[in-house]
Amino acid sequence: MSLAQEMFAIAPAMGKANLSAGQLKLLTGKARWIFRVGEAGFPTVPTIAITRAAWDELQAERTRKDTRLRTHWVACLFKLVSRDGSPPQLVVRTSASSHNGGLAPAKLGIAAPAAPEDAVDPTRPLAKAIKQAFESYGFSGRTWTGQRQDDDRGRQIVLVQALASGDVEQFLTRNATSGVLGPAPLGGSPLPRLPAGVVSLIDLLDAKAGRHMACLVAIDRGQVTFVSARPVQASAGAELTAAVDRVERKVWTPQGAVSRVDANRLALMLHPRLKSADEVTPIAMGLGVSPGAASGIITFNPDDAARLRARGKHCILVVNETGPADIEGMKAATGILTARGGMSSHAGVIARITGKPCVAGVRSLSVDTSEMVCRIGEREFRAGDRLTIDGTDGAVYLGTLPLAQPQIGGAISKLLGWSDASRTIAVRTNAETVESAQTALSFGAEGIGLARSEHMFFSPERMVALRRMILSEDEDARARALAGLVDFQTGDYSALFSAMRGLPVTVRLFDPPLHEFLPRTDEEVEETALSLGVAVRALRLRLERIAEINPMLGHRGVRLAITYPEILQMQMQAVLAGARAASERQADPVTVEVMVPFVSTATEVSWIRERAMAMLDNSGLTRSDRVRFSFGTMIELPRACLRAGDIAGMVDFISFGTNDLTQTTFGISRDDAPAFLAAYQRKGVYERDPFVTIDEKGVGEMIAIAIARGKAANPRLKIGICGEHAGDPASLQFFAGLGVDYVSCSPYRVPVARLTLAQASA
């Protein structure tokens, strides 16, 4: 396309614009909507566009005393002249793809050039305004790879318009909070008096743009002339309401609405959020590991959090890091703030399961539990002071800020119903409690893809039983401890199976990294010693003997079941007894999937399968159609990915635990990673946090290899994803291309997964 073609009329004063394919590609920002509205026949202010590249060449030509391109430019300007032949006053506007406060404001009332050279001479009003508009875009930037963006800079455009007669008014095409079709007031200003003609403009622009638009019109003797429009940010709820309304108005199809709604923003509708944080500055920033906002009284103790909740008080649990013993306090707190940890830390995982906002990895935070005080930077806070946290972006604010509560109505149900019509991948949830399972079911979960059995022991009395088992010195003592656990788990599984009403429940066998479940503080050690009936000194010696240098790669998962077979026996007894109990009181059959975690070899899987299937045969459940049983394994280690073909022949399904697989593939501790990952991203070493969005080239390739080798060995093999990446839209798009059968995510991410996977199937 020649530079002469980069000066063209978008909305000529007479006739219609006739743009080439190349010129259509140049339309961005306001230019796009001016062309679309004028093309549709609505009265539009005459407008022409010029690219930076064409303008630069006009300036170069001027210094060469050449006039060929200038002649074409002057001819373009004449397309702003109406039938009466009088040159109008002019307006110069920028036309960026996104709104930017640094761009030059519209320059109004510019006299038309008196001579051809006035159209390009930078000392003359029109040329000067065009030059300033281009300069406000700034100079060419660089991409994250360091490449210059000269081409984008050369294609920036500036608009020259005829000055519209009459009063110029602004309004929104839809209400930015409710999503109701406008006209609606803009920026807190009262809605101006508008003639009926704006209704057809709003309908037209809403259909063409499919977004909330700030619209500028001129009103002269009751007649409306379109001047320009730009997209504006609306609330997530408003965008959803608008999408459903466009379907009902037959502007979009249901699948068109599904494809256009931002799945990332959908998550915001499920949690409280800050009404406005524009006028306040965070006192600290961490990692937003569980979305939503919360305000409350600072408390440093899980028990105090429970007491405050019982009194109807909102509180923020502030700790250095959380562990299994803190679970009741985490449930009681309105929000959680930790100094350490990341996306897949204990605090992040539990917060997402329970739907609590959580900010983790705040490096400027330190907590002194003995003094009941914390410091955030130079500020000191005590119990009873107030904070607000935003688990969406990781911000921490002083005091109590106003919150907007979630409103989940008919619009989201309609959208997700349309999503399910095209989705081919099932969405399950990660849940261990009936409460979490019911939350997930209300969001449309199609089963449980990960029930972490060790999470069922987070209450104080159960923690004592679990610690007794871990700390037992011999097999007899361990067997006595396990006897008490069977009763606990049988009831848990029975209730969970009943809650899921025949939907599949994947029970992961014990995978407790021991350090997470053992007492840590002096107070906890003393309490544990008392509950176990042993001396504190003896308990400390035992803790020293079983302490691991790197527990995340230590005595956990399948290794625990092989070295302590009685643990496997206890779990299988509880699962089978729970399945039997549930099947006897419900019409739906119970669908149980037992999953072995942290395997690295096929022989480990074979060892567990042989014993698990023997217990199943002895239970008599195989002779009944009331319980459907399958056996699988969780793939979390690179070696398991590479040897998936060996493993696949022994299992009905494999499910990828992407948290640990990311950790072991990168060789990065997921809990320590926040200390350097932010710097890596700032410096362009990593484009994204691999614990938030799946690393497609490394971890993703390991998954793809495992699926290919597993399917080759066992064509009936079912494939699942049960790591935290299963709730991330970008990761879900990648998984959808791998041919997986289901994903499993935290309950509050189920709607996000349903929408994203429908978009991936389109």
UniProtKB/TrEMBL annotation:
Substrate binds at R452, R508, E636, G657, T658, N659, D660. Belongs to the PEP-utilizing enzyme family. It is an enzyme of class 2 (transferase). It comes from Devosia lucknowensis. Catalyzes the reversible phosphorylation of pyruvate and phosphate. This is Pyruvate, phosphate dikinase. Keywords: Kinase, Magnesium, Metal-binding, Pyruvate, Transferase. Mg(2+) binds at E636, D660. The lineage of its organism: Bacteria, Pseudomonadati, Pseudomonadota, Alphaproteobacteria, Hyphomicrobiales. PROSITE patterns: PEP_ENZYMES_2. Its cofactor is Mg(2+). Residues 417-760 form the PEP-utilising enzyme C-terminal domain. It comes from the Bacteria. InterPro entries: PEP-util_enz_mobile_dom (IPR008279), PEP_util_C (IPR000121), PEP_util_CS (IPR023151), Phosphohistidine_dom_sf (IPR036637), Pyruvate_phosphate_dikinase (IPR010121), Pyrv/PenolPyrv_kinase-like_dom (IPR015813), Pyrv_kinase-like_dom_sf (IPR040442). The active site is at H346, C722. GO terms for molecular function: kinase activity; metal ion binding; pyruvate, phosphate dikinase activity. Residues 314-394 form the PEP-utilising enzyme mobile domain. The keyword Magnesium applies. Its EC number is 2.7.9.1.
